[in-house]
Each structure stands twice: as C-alpha cells, then as structure tokens.
Design goal:
This protein has 342 residues and is α+β, with helices and mostly antiparallel strands. Helix 6 packs antiparallel against helix 7, helix 7 packs antiparallel against helix 9 and helix 9 packs antiparallel against helix 10.
Length: 342
C-alpha cells in the first residue's frame, strides 16, 4: 500500500513540475477545423516590409481536380479584405504540400506590404470566391463545398518599438568626408584672404580717396594702350607703301594722345597738339617730360616728311628699315610717357 501511495505521489509531482509543452487546442490557437498550421514571415513585421502570410489547410475532396500543375499563382490580386487595412497585395500562391492518406493538404501563401500599424483581423472568407474573382469564373467551378479560410489575427508593429529612446539626441559637430579636409581648409583660407583684401580696400579708400570707378577707368585705359601697341606692331607685317604706313602711324599717335590727355586731337595740327598738351599741364612739365614732347614733335615732322615726300627710299630694304625705326620710336615714346605719368 505504501509503495502504491509513493508511486501515485511521484506521478502527481512529475505532472505538476513537468507539464506538457502545448496544452492548447487548435480552436484556442485560432485555427479552424480544416487548418494545419499558420505563421507570418518575418515574425516581427513592420511598415514597408514584404510580409508572407502562410496558411495550410485541407480542401474538399473535389478541389484537387481543378489543378493542372498542383499550383495556382495570382499576381497583384484584388482582395478587398486586405484593402481595408491599407496593405498592398503582391501575389497569392496555392501549392499542394503533401498527402496524408487519401487527403491532400495545400498551402496558401499571401505576400503583401503593410502601410499601417496595428492588429490585422481578416474575416473568414471562402477561398472559392477569391479564385472565381481572379480567374473570371464562378465559385461553383471550384467545387460544390465551401473552402473556409480563417486567418488568425496578427500585428504590424511600429518601427519605433525597436528604438525605445524617443528623446532628442545632442547635436553633433560637422563630420567631414575622408579626403575633403584639405579642400575645406583651402576654401577657408581663400575666404579669409578675400575678407582681408576687402578690409584693406575699405581702409585705403579713406586715406587715398580710392574709388572703384577710377580703378575700372584705369583698367580700361591699360587695355586700350595695349591694343594700340598691338596694332602698331602689326603694321610691320602688312605690305603697304611707306606713305600710307606713315599716315597710319600718325593716326595711332593722335589716338593715343587723345586717350592719354582726354582731349580730341583728331582735327588738330602737330603744333596745336603740342601747345595744347603744354597748356593742360599749366607749364609744370619737368625736363624729362619736355624732352618727351620734343621727341613727339620730331616724330610728327618725320612722319609728315614720309607722307608727303615725292622721293622714297632707294630700295625695299631701306623702306622696311624706315618702318621699323618709326614703329620702335613710337613704342618707346609711349613707354616713356606711361612711366613719367605725363
């Protein structure tokens, strides 16, 4: 009797300490009588994930006769029960899985992308209605008996649940990409240099009455003189008579003096040009500046002689030498006047 009591107590203790792993029935798990298994993948699904809903079931006896390849594939089906949960259906697959005696089981796979969070509860539906809608047939074409599909509820979680820390993080400093530090420092150095230059201009403007208008005027004058010099040099490459050459050089000299002193000398004689220059300087020309004006007068006289002389050089070589001398003489006078600031 004691042995039986001890054995009974041992079994009772084992039952209490080691209960069965799964004591829930199919109905308590949410499955219907014809379902075998159900799961979603990934198990923790979030908005924007492609989710697979897997549901295995036993169909009626007449259902397998409608399969030619033991598989049905529906792409982008119109399933209104999913549309109410703002889910985008990608595809639906129905595949034969295995046989159990004379019965065949099938797996229903629904692929979709959820766009809202929360619990999804799909009402029970007849699979024949879905197949009939997508294949343009009647549900009776897929068997006389209904194929009830009851998918248990599942949840689409919030992505913020992965990161429970919802407080604002402190600001971080600027992070430079690898290899860009040199360019950033170079850019900063250029900006600092420009700032110093602008500050110097502003400071100098107060002391020397600096003006941007005067700067641009001086710049344009520089390019104008540079252009006249180029034109004078190009005369040596032109095959023209000495008289015509002298006339062009005379015109270039008058244009330069006009721009240099701001007085129109286009219709003035040689004597009038020199007298006007002396009057504009109010008789304050230095000895060097007087020498330059005397050289200009000498060049004018020589050019007039070559223009109006009936007798030219005896040969071509002397004519070319005469042209070079006049060109170099004019360029030298321009350089001296610019250096003396006449």
């Amino acid at each position: 009797m004691k042995k039986k009591s001890l054995f009974f107590l041992f079994l009772l203790s084992f039952q209490i300490l080691c209960p069965p792993k799964n004591t829930k029935t199919w109905a308590e798990e949410g499955f219907t009588d014809n379902s075998l298994s159900f799961y979603i993948s990934p198990k923790e699904s979030y908005v924007g994930d492609e989710v697979q809903l897997y549901y295995e079931f036993f169909p009626p006896a007449d259902f397998p006769s409608f399969f030619l390849t033991n598989k049905i594939f529906l792409e982008k089906p119109q399933f209104s029960l999913f549309g109410s949960y703002d889910c985008e259906l990608q595809s639906i697959e129905i595949v034969q899985t295995h046989k159990k005696g004379l019965e065949k089981s099938y797996a229903l796979s629904i692929y979709f992308i959820p766009f809202v969070t929360g619990v999804v509860e799909i009402p029970e539906f007849d699979l024949r209605e879905l197949l009939a809608h997508e294949t343009q047939k009647t549900k009776e074409d897929f068997g006389a008996s209904a194929i009830p599909i009851k998918i248990p509820q599942f949840e689409i979680q919030k992505i913020l649940s992965i990161y429970p820390d919802s407080s604002l993080r402190p600001m971080r400093g600027i992070i430079l990409l690898p290899g860009t530090s040199v360019f950033i420092y170079l850019l900063l150095a250029i900006l600092i240099g420009i700032s110093i230059f602008l500050f110097y201009i502003g400071y100098a403007a107060k002391k020397i009455r600096f003006s941007f208008f005067g700067l641009w005027k001086r710049l344009f004058y520089f390019f104008y003189v540079f252009g006249i010099k180029r034109k004078i040099k190009k005369l040596l490459k032109k095959n023209i008579r000495l008289g015509e050459f002298s006339q062009i050089v005379h015109r270039y000299l008058c244009l330069y003096l006009t721009k240099r002193f701001g007085i129109d000398f286009s219709a003035a004689t040689n004597t009038e040009i020199l007298q006007t220059i002396r009057m504009s300087q109010e008789g304050l020309l230095s000895e060097k500046e007087e020498t330059i004006l005397f050289d200009i007068q000498t060049l004018f006289i020589r050019l007039d002689f070559l223009r109006f002389s009936l007798e030219g050089p005896e040969n071509k070589g002397e004519e070319e030498r005469e042209k070079k001398e006049r060109v170099f003489q004019l360029l030298g006078l321009i350089a001296e006047m610019e250096s003396q600031h006449v």
